[in-house]
């Protein structure tokens, strides 16, 4: 037997369609088995698929790449909020998502949607040899949060980066963020996750949880405008608030459809706390 699931595809951090980062969103009545969720994400073949299940106090939210579940994803969270607000008639002033990274709050804002995420301050590290070998050029600074952070001199240097992804497959972090001061914004970045089968991510919300605190200290300012310089590109408004950060951006609808998946008989137990037990 099979069951029908409505699938939304949303361009997140996008001011117009075909820009930003596309994410799939599936709103479920109950959790399916993990292997079914992973198969859906693999079939979608987008950098992330978000899965939502409503609870008494909010929404459980999980994110999966084509290869694995991840602990934090900004653009798919923004896409999930967009679906709830724009397509499912949710009128609450603020959404609460329960995730593997704790509670995440999202509300509508002048910039589209504002997401309250945990900030991560990257710290200087001695780079492993394969990190700089994969970059193919010198870095001004090397730091690490849950990704490696490579700081370059200029936006021009950033645009010229052509990584050796094979060199980065054995790194002990999720991925590599390369960043530099921006020419028409505060800072720019590019994000690479070959271990997750996403060589270059179009726009990465979670990366700005690390880059924005770094540049806030460099520029001595808490509100910054960022741009991710992928082929699709996208803008992220960042406001650093101590150990939290507000990431804001727009979302655009691209696709609405129905997928058919095997009826799950062994639902998963997600590692999230919905405070309803």
UniProtKB/TrEMBL annotation:
GO CC field: cytoplasm
Active site (record annotation): 48
Source organism, top-level taxon: Bacteria
Pfam families: PhzC-PhzF (PF02567)
Annotated InterPro entries: Phenazine_PhzF-like
SUPFAM superfamilies found in the cross-reference section: Diaminopimelate epimerase-like (SSF54506)
Single Gene Ontology MF annotation: isomerase activity
Alphabetized UniProt keyword annotations: Isomerase
NCBIfam families hit by this protein: PhzF_family
Family: Belongs to the PhzF family.
Protein name: Isomerase
């Amino acid at each position: 037997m099979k069951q029908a699931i409505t699938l939304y595809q949303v361009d997140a951090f996008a001011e117009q369609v075909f820009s930003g980062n596309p994410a799939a969103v599936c709103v479920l009545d109950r959790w399916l088995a993990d292997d079914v969720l992973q198969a859906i994400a693999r079939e979608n073949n987008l950098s992330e698929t978000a899965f939502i299940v409503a609870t008494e106090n909010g929404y459980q939210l999980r994110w999966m790449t084509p290869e694995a579940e991840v602990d934090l994803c900004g653009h798919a969270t923004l896409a999930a909020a967009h679906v709830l607000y724009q397509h499912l008639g949710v009128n609450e002033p603020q959404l609460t998502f329960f995730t593997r990274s704790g509670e995440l709050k999202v509300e509508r804002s002048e910039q589209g949607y504002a997401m309250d995420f945990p900030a991560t301050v990257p710290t200087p590290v001695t780079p492993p040899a394969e990190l700089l070998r994969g970059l193919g050029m010198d870095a001004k600074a090397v730091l690490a949060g849950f990704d490696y952070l490579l700081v370059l001199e200029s936006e021009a240097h950033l645009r010229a980066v052509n990584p050796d992804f094979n060199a980065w497959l054995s790194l002990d972090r999720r991925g590599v963020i390369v960043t530099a001061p921006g020419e028409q914004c505060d800072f720019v970045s590019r994000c690479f996750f070959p271990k997750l089968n996403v060589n270059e991510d179009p726009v990465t919300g979670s990366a700005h949880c690390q880059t924005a605190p770094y540049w806030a200290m460099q520029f001595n300012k808490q509100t910054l405008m960022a741009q991710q310089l992928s082929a699709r590109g996208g803008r992220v408004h960042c406001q650093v608030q101590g150990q939290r950060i507000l990431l804001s951006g727009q979302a655009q609808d691209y696709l609405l459809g129905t997928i058919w998946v095997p009826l799950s008989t062994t639902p998963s137990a997600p590692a999230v706390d919905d405070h309803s037990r």
